[in-house]
Amino acid sequence: MSGTEFESRGVNNRKAAIIGCGFVGSSIAFTLMQRSSFSELVLLDIDRKKAEGEALDISHGLPYSAPMEIYAGDYDDIRDAAMIIITAGANQKQGETRLDLIDRNLKIFASVIPELKKRDCGGIILIVSNPVDILTYAAIKMSGFPAERVIGSGTVLDTARLKYLLGRQLDVDARSVHAVIIGEHGDSELAVWSGANVSGIDLDHFCELRGLFHYKASMQKIYTEVRDSAYEIIQRKGATYYGIAMAVARIAESITRDEHSILPVSVLLNGEYGINGLCLSIPSVVGSTGVEKILEIPLSGTEQRELSASAAALAEAVRHADEAAEQINGG
After folding, report:
1. Among the options 60, 178, 185, 260, which is catalytic?
2. Does residue 260 carry a catalytic annotation?
3. pTM for the whole thing?
4. How confident is the model at residue 151 (pLDDT cuts 50, 70, 90)?
5. Counting beta carbons within 10 angstroms of the beta carbon of residue 53, is it exposed (0 to 12), middle (13 to 18) or buried (19 or more)?
6. Side-chain half-sphere of 97: how many Cα atoms within 13 Å?
7. pLDDT tens sequence across 192-205
8. Alpha helices in the chain (DSSP H)
9. Of the given ranges (22-26, 70-74, 227-231, 250-254), which has the lowest mean pLDDT?
């Protein structure tokens, strides 16, 4: 996107904001600083002193990075941000699923999203809070912003976990592994094994080349480990934040550099895969305008059924999001 087009939306393409300065928000801020992704970063939190402390702490590392202005602010300060990253919300606790967080986080979004709508923010809204698919849907409905500009971090992290574990299993660089997790960012997500490959070599064939002839059980174990990763990490250290920070930084780079990268972000579906009116994580072309194209990738019959089941698992939760949006919009 050209500078003129950015200006037409009233945004500064070198400015980002993070709403929510807990473990996830502060880790994202630190990662964006290290990567010099922006020249201005605004931190917002219900606890203003927390945001000020994080901004100050991160700023002290700037002499070893690149020039960047990092400060605590309020909603008026983020009106022109090219990206608004929302991490505000209750944390997932040990024994909870992401869907258990719905009601608590819908209430938080009911206070956050109207502030963005009131200021007619023209940037990309990136939802990171969980359950990310439901909250992305809620943010679209509550804000009235174009769906392509309101996206969720989706299964970008889950996909990285899959590539990492496959790389270890096959003893190859994870960056050479091409595989994706789609559906809910949660318990009903699925791995698209039918399209998985290593540098263009079909995964089944590559396993045989590596002398792995009984690998189906290993693949299922890897999928289970990916799906349950958050639970394992929460059990050990109480929260997950480094991996998601890297995933968000990757999405941010695709947007700010207008890369047109394909990432499994959470997007609003309108008939793709036979699914309507809810957000799921699907490979999409991501650039400076947000989601440019939702891709309908080939799926096996089993994978299509699993994706439909994942959508069905979210259907009831979407009703809660609709009710919350109606209250805000006076419906």
Report:
1. 185
2. no
3. 0.93
4. very high
5. middle
6. 12
7. 999 999 999 999 99
8. 3-8, 23-34, 48-59, 102-118, 132-143, 156-170, 203-209, 216-227, 229-237, 242-256, 301-329
9. 227-231
